[in-house]
Amino acid sequence: MTADTWVLTSDGSRQVHQLIGRRFSAIVDGRAYACESEGFFATGEKPVLRLSTREGQVLRLTADHLVRRVCRKTRFVSEQAWVRAADLHPGDEILLHNHRALLGWEGPYTLEQGYLIGLLMGDGTLQADKAVLSVWAPELKLVGNGGTPALPLGNHGAQGIMQAAQAAATTLPHRADFRGWQRPIAARGEARLASAPLRDLALELGMARASKRITPTMESASSEFCTGLLRGLFDADGSVQGAQDNAQDNAQHNAQDKGVSVRLTQGDIALLQAVQRLLLRLGIVATIYRDRKPAGLKAMPNGKGGASEYATRAVHELVVSGDNLSLFADRVGFNDTAKAQRLDDVLASYRRQLNRERFVATIESLVADGREAVFDATVAEVHAFDANGLFVHNCGEQPLPSYGCCCLGSIDLTRFVREPFEANARFDEAAFTALAKVATRMLDNVLDETVWPLPQQMEEARNKRRIGL
User: What is the pLDDT of residues 10-43, one digit of tens each?
Assistant: First the structure.
C-alpha cells in the first residue's frame, strides 16, 4: 500500500504513514485483530497501480498485493478468493468491509463539533475573523420583515437545523454575550450564526478558507465527531429523493419501482470520496456517480442587471440506497425536520425488506500510477485489513526483530526436469524431496557454524532458528 492509504483501526481511521513502526489493532468486518508486526513496515519502492471502482472507491497498491475477489454470487451465498491486483479486470467484483457490528471508536472532538463543521462545510463561510453558518427558509423572510416578532428559532423549515446548531455552538468557548442566530435577512430568507470559536476549531482541524474539505485530522477523529460531521453536511447539502404519494399503497409502489435514496451533491469529488469512507466505517455503503452535470458554461446574473456566461464545475452525486437507508436514519440521520420526516415516511411505507447490501464493488479500471514507496503489515488470525474500505490481504512475512536473521537457501528447480522439451518431460519429485531434506538440515547447521559479529545475534539465531528454503 502507498503511505496515504486509510486503514481502520480500533482507535479510528489512520493513514499508513501514521502506523509505520506502531502496533495497532485492525478492524476487519467490524472486529478488532491485533497487528503481529510492529505496525506497517517498508517493503521498498515499487511500481504501483491505481485501482478504481464504478462505485467511487480508489486504492493505490502494488501489482502482487492480494485483493478479495468475489468468484460467485447468488441471492444466498458469496464465494471469494484472494487474487493479485494485476490479475483483476474491469467488471470483476471485489469485497468491501462490513463494519455494521462496530459500535464506534474513541478519539478527539465531539458530536457537536462535528455537526458544526459539517454545516460550515456545506452552507457556511470561513472568514478571517469568524465562521458564518447560514440557513434558508421562506418563513424567515416574514420574520426579517417584521411580520413575526418571534426569533428565528420558531416553527419553520429550518427550525431543526437551527436548534441543533445553537445547542452545539453553546459547547464552544464563546463570550458571555454570544446570542447565536442573528435576525434573518428579509430579502433572502436567510439566518446566520457567526462564531469566532468555530473559526478557530475549523483552522485547528486543517480547514482552509479556499478549500472546505474533510481533512485528515477530521477523518482521524472520534466516531461521534464523524457522525456529527456527516449529519451537518447532509443537513446542509443532502436530500431525500424518490417519488412518493400520500396514499400508502402508492408510496410503497413508487418507492420500490423508482427507488428512494439519500443523496449528497457536490462539485468536489475528493470530498464525496471522504464521505463515502466515513459512511462505510459506520456500515453504510454509498455509491458515487460522477458528472451528473458536466462542467461547462452557464448564463447567470452578472450583478449589473443582466446575465453573463460563467464557467461551472462538474457536479457529482453520492447516493445511499437499499437497506443502507435504515442504517443511515439510525446512525447519521437529519436534524433538518423536513428531511428527517420524509426519510421516516419513506421507510415506514416499505412493506417488504429493503434490498440487502452485499458489500461488493465493481472494478472500473486498473492502471499504472508511477513508482512509490510502499508498506505492509501482518495482522493476526485474519491476515487482512481495511484499505480505503476495500478488503485486502496483509503481508505473509514478518519483519525481523532486533539482531534477527533468516538463513536463506535456494534450489534450482530446472535441475529436476527430466527429458526437457520432450513429449515425456517430467519433474522428478523424489529427487526434489530428497534434496529439500538435505538443504533444510544444512541451513539449520549453518546457524550453529556461523561466527556471529555480536553475541545478541548468536542468541537470537539459536533461540528462533529461522531458515528459508
Answer: 999 999 999 999 999 999 999 999 998 889 999 9
Q: Helices (H), strands (E): how many in the chain? A: 12, 25
For the purposes of burial, counting CB atoms within 10 Å of the CB of 418, is it exposed (0-12), middle (13-18) or buried (19 or more)? exposed
Task: Show the cell assigned to 261.
Answer: 435514496
CA 450 vs. chain centroid, Å, equals 49
User: 3-state class of 260 per DSSP?
Assistant: coil
- Alpha-carbon distance of 140 to 158, in angstroms, equals 9
Whether the Cβ atoms of residue 61 and residue 51 lie closer than 8 Å to each other? yes
Question: In sequence order, what DSSP letters do the residues of 30-63 get, joined into one string?
Answer: TEEEEBSSSBBEEEEEEEEEEEEETTS-EEEE-T
Strands 467-468 and 407-408: parallel
Residue pair 442/436 in contact by the 8 Å Cβ criterion: no
Contact 262, 239 (CB under 8 A): yes
Alpha carbon distance 124, 149 (integer Å): 26
Task: Return d(Cα 459, Cα 399) in angstroms, integer.
Answer: 18
| In contact, 139 and 182? CB cutoff 8 Å | no
Dihedral pair phi/psi, residue 27, rounded to 5°: -95, 115
Q: How confident is the model at residue 129 (pLDDT cuts 50, 70, 90)?
A: very high
Give the tens place of pLDDT for each residue, 287-334.
Answer: 999 998 888 888 878 777 788 888 888 999 999 999 999 999 999 999
How far apart, in whole angstroms, are the C-alpha atoms of residue 172 and residue 327?
Answer: 30
The Cβ of residue 261 has, within 10 Å, a number of other Cβ atoms equal to 22
CA distance 66 to 138: 54
Alpha carbon distance 67, 387 (integer Å): 10
Retrieve residue 181's grid coordinates. Answer: 442566530
DSSP 366-419: EEEEEEEEEEE--BTTT-EEEETTEEEE--SS----TT---EE----GGGGEES
Name the residue type at position 31: R
Cβ atoms within 10 Å of 460's Cβ, excluding its own? 19
- Please tell me the distance from the alpha carbon of residue 181 to that of residue 150, in angstroms, as a whole number: 12
449's enclosing H/E stretch is: helix 429-449
